[in-house]
Specification:
By secondary structure, this protein is mainly β. It is 5% helix and 43% strand. The strands form 8 sheets. Strands 19, 20, 21, 22, 23, 24, 25, 26 and 27 form a 9-stranded antiparallel sheet that branches.
């Protein structure tokens, strides 16, 4: 029994004696080193300096540092794989941090960083990341934070390009430019460059909220009937914009709406030319047209017509005048005012208005048409039709005839039934209805004039 106990006591000692002390080292795990890319993270701002930062660490699964850091390398490439930078930073010991500065930044675009680190036992660790260089989301312009470094108005008024309508930062995200002249025919947009090379904004709905060319809505031109001088603002965060008249006024806008535009639309916007004085130039008005002034382009708000006294026409000054009244009857040309082009003015304090005739487009006449008929055109045809150039006054230029060519004036081209014609037997330049042929020895090329009220004529 004692012998057996002795053998059991010796067995553990024998087992321990079988292990070499080198077996202990071979069972300790030697892990690969680690590398982390600490900066940049995600994106950096174009034009700004930044750092690329790596942290190298000896294997974190080791119970002791068996193989310290030995070497490292990195490469940075752009989106097409071209080398931007590379290097072999010095590493040693258990941990090393390396910083690579880019004082001038990098061009806009996407970049990839690849890093490798090796320990003294040949174990290798790797890391890869990407980052982008983008336009700044905010810019300091003067004392204000803006989403863009510059802003411009580009349109037909400046040939869709240039810096003559550059806006100024006046508050955070708020741009402004004063005294911009815009007429009804002008179209424009806002742009963050002077040549449409980046982002621009327009507004098809004319609701004061723009959309970007980079959005699904696109950026249609702004064609909203603005007419006059304006102080223009644009918010590059909310995309709201406004055009406030550069002169004092009781309305933000004023339009002429009438039968010529179905009482709606922005094509006839009036513009301020002085405090409270609105103007629209060169509007064609016919004698049967009806129209009014409206603060919106649909008669949805305040609108004005003539008061109970109506309008008057001064045939010396050729001015229609009167006083407007809110919701009054439509304006119409008063008796004596002809079809023509007028300059309209309206004072939104006094209500006084004037329509000044600048060009008469049609004239009063006793006949709807007039012709010269004679031997030179076989006594018929439309080749010598005359034009009404003033009230009752018909004219035709460059008529060629010889001394043997008699002629008459007629209100039809063929002396048909119902035709009235005028001749002159006495050659005294005073025609008579159904008078004799005019055979007064005219020979050459002449301008013919005939007044169908006085029946006077000339051949000059």
């Amino acid at each position: 029994m004692k012998r057996i106990k002795y053998l059991l006591f010796l067995l553990p000692a024998l087992l321990v004696g079988c292990f070499d002390e080198n077996d202990l080292d071979e069972n300790v795990f030697d892990s690969a080193p680690l590398v982390s890319i600490d900066e940049p993270s995600g994106s950096v701002t174009f034009g700004d300096a930044f750092n690329v930062v790596f942290t190298f660490t000896d294997g974190n699964l080791e119970s002791a540092s068996l193989s310290p850091l030995s070497s490292a390398s990195y490469t940075i490439v752009d989106a097409i794989g071209a080398d931007v930078d590379s290097g072999t930073p010095a590493v040693s010991g258990i941990t090393t941090t390396t910083t690579i500065p880019f004082a001038e930044g990098l061009p806009l675009g996407e970049y990839t960083i690849e890093v490798t680190v090796t320990d003294t036992n040949g174990n290798t660790g790797n890391a890869t990341t990407t980052f982008s260089v983008t336009e700044s989301t905010t810019f300091t312009v003067g004392d204000f934070e803006m989403n863009h470094p510059e802003l411009f108005i580009l349109g037909t008024m400046n040939g869709w390009g240039g810096s003559d309508l550059q806006m100024t930062a006046v508050a955070d995200n708020e741009w402004q430019i004063d005294n911009v002249t815009i007429t009804n025919s002008d179209q424009f947009k806002f742009s963050n460059t002077p040549d449409f090379s980046n982002e621009d904004w327009g507004d098809e709905e004319c609701d004061g909220i723009a959309s970007s060319n980079m959005s699904a809505e696109g950026a249609p031109n702004i064609i909203c009937g603005f007419n006059g001088r304006f102080n223009v603002t644009f918010n590059d965060q909310s995309l709201e914009y406004s055009l406030a008249a550069a002169f004092a006024a009781n309305f933000e806008s004023l339009f002429v709406l009438g039968t010529f535009n179905d009482f709606q639309g922005t094509n006839l916007g009036m513009g301020l030319v002085a405090d409270n004085v609105w103007e629209l130039k060169n509007l064609e008005i016919n004698v049967n047209d009806a129209f009014r002034f409206s603060t919106t382009f649909t008669l949805a708000d305040m609108h004005y017509g003539q008061n109970g006294s109506g309008s008057t026409f001064d045939d010396v000054t050729e001015v229609v005048s009167g006083t407007a009244e809110e919701f009054g009857p439509n304006f119409v040309l008063p008796p004596g005012a002809p079809h023509g082009r007028y300059d309209l003015q309206y004072n939104d304090v006094t209500g006084d208005y004037t329509f000044t005739l600048v060009e008469q487009l049609s004239f009063t006449s006793n006949n709807s048409e007039m012709y010269i008929l004679g031997e030179m055109n076989g006594w018929g045809g439309t080749d010598l039709q005359m034009e009404l150039v003033d009230d009752f006054t018909w004219q035709r230029e460059e008529v060629t005839l010889s001394s043997t060519n008699p002629f008459k004036f007629a209100n039809s081209p063929d002396f048909g039934g119902g035709t009235t014609d005028w001749g002159d037997a006495d050659c005294d330049n005073q025609a008579e209805e159904f008078g004799a042929d005019i055979a007064c020895g005219f020979d050459g090329t002449f301008t013919f004039t005939f007044n169908d009220q006085t029946l006077e004529y000339s051949v000059e």
